[in-house]
Amino acid sequence: MLGLMQRRELLISSLIAHAARHHGEAEVVSRRDDGRIARTTYAELETRARKLVSVLRDLGVAFSDRVATLAMNSDRHLELYYAISGMGAVCHTINPRLSQDDIAYIVDHAEDGFIFTDPAFLPIVAAVAPRVAHVLRGVIALCEPDEIPACELPPEIALYCYETLLDQARDAPDWPIFAEETASALCYTSGTTGKPKGALYSHRSTVLYAMATNAPDVFGLRATDRVLPAVPMFHVNAWGLPYVAPMAGASLLMPGRHLDPVSLLALLNDERATFSVGVPTVWLNLIGHMRQTEESFETLQRILAGGAAFPRALIAEFEQRGVSVRHGWGMTESSPIVTANAPKPTTAALDAEALLDQQAKQGRVVYGADVRAENEAGEVPRDGVTQGNLALRGHWVANGYYLLPETEIAPDAWFPTGDVGVVDAEGYVLLTDRTKDLIKSGGEWISSIALENIAVGHPDVAEAAAIAEPDEKWGERPLLVVVPRTGHEPQPEDVRAFFNGKVPNWSIPDRVIIAEELPHGATGKILKSELRRIYTPREG
Ligand code: AMP
Question: What is the homologous superfamily of the domain 438-535 according to CATH?
Answer without folding.
Answer: ANL, C-terminal domain (3.30.300.30)
